[in-house]
Amino acid sequence: MSTTFQPVLDRIATEIDATPGRGRPADYIPALASADPNRFAMAVADLDGTVCGVGEWQHPFSTQSITKAFTLALALSLEGDELWEHVGREPSGNPFNSLVQLEYENGIPRNPFINAGALVVTDRLQKLTGDASGALRTFLRAESGNPELTFDLEIAASEAAHGDRNAALAHFMASYGNITNPVPELLDQYIRQCSIAASCGDLALAAGFLARHGIRADGSTLLTRSRAKQVNAVMLTCGTYDAAGDFAHRVGLPGKSGVGGGIIAVVPGHCTICVWSPGLDQRGNSVAGVAALDRFTTLTGLSIF
Ligand code: GLN
């Protein structure tokens, strides 16, 4: 079925190519700063795992916060609703690395997709598995069918050398008793998680369980239908940070972005999409990525609304 998306993807790539203004790569992680904003890739996977793509769709890029959708799903599958005692599910209306709400809200982050919330989710997953980033890599390899998918240790080292903000968030939450592991161990796991390199094809496949209502590529159940719906709902309302309203307005799908320039998006019951272009807007979302998803849902009529 996904071959029917090829003409749409080709058209979007041509349109994006002709559109000036790509934003700027993230520079607070030095290893990401040199990425060329003119690069572009997009892939669509249908429910049975057939993939089509355009541009550099098989080229691995830095997934960064896209991984937060997967760690949330893994932690929820192991811990269930108790997870929500440690992290909320409301949009924050603040930048992804903001500290300001945490003190007012007693160390419970607003949602699992801002950095504070993702640190809590990784902390829970670390407690449950003993190796959160390893569990994530195993899952992504299995779902994408790519045994080479792995951490980019150069990017991890670059982020670790500039990690004061995340360290501050983690220590602050630990002071409220909302972090169980030693903070240095948690930061190491979180940074490794964010450093995973994967292609648009890999990520479109790996997100497939969100379109299949919680069912993994091998037919087993990761999440109940209701929990898969919850993850999609949090992606819609919080997955692109303080731009989530604008993203819902333009794209109309659950999505999760990362500062590497990637975005995954889900059409429940239909397909998953991943787009990558490293130039970001002020709020940390890929400029060409959002534009491409906007065109995709406009041209295909696919949307949850
Ligand atoms: N590793 C990045 C950070 O913690 C991820 C941020 C993002 O992709 N929005 O700052």
Question: How would you characterize this protein structure?
Answer:
With 305 residues, this protein is α+β, with helices and mostly antiparallel strands. The chain has a single domain, classed as DD-peptidase/beta-lactamase superfamily (Beta-lactamase, 3-Layer(aba) Sandwich). Helix content is 45%, strand content 11%. It is built from 13 helices and eight strands. A five-stranded antiparallel sheet has the order 2-1-8-7-6. Strands 3-5-4 form a three-stranded antiparallel sheet. A hairpin with a 4-residue loop joins strand 6 and strand 7. Helix 5 packs parallel to helix 8 and helix 6 packs across helix 8. The mean pLDDT is 96. The site of glutamine has 11 residues, from loops.
Which shape, going by the Cα principal axes? globular
Strand content: 5-15%
Assembly category = single chain
**Backbone CA Rg:** 18 Å
The helix content, as a percent range, equals 40-55%
Tell me the major beta sheet. Answer: 5 strands, antiparallel
Which secondary-structure class do the elements indicate?
alpha+beta
Spatial separation of the terminal alpha carbons? 22 Å
Write the layout of secondary structure elements.
Elements (H helix, E strand, L loop, with lengths): L5 H12 L23 E6 L4 E5 L5 E2 L4 H13 L20 H5 L10 H15 L2 H13 L5 E2 L1 H8 L3 H12 L7 H12 L1 E3 L1 H7 L1 H4 L13 H14 L5 H7 L4 E3 L4 E6 L3 E6 L10 H14 L5
Antiparallel strand pairs: 1-2, 1-8, 3-5, 4-5, 6-7, 7-8
Brief sketch in words of this structure:
This protein has a single domain (6-300), classed as 3-Layer(aba) Sandwich (Beta-lactamase). It has 13 helices and eight strands. It has helices at 6-17, 67-79, 100-104, 115-129, 132-144, 153-160, 164-175, 183-194, 200-206, 208-211, 225-238, 244-250, 287-300, and strands at residues 41-46, 51-55, 61-62, 150-151, 196-198, 255-257, 262-267, 271-276.
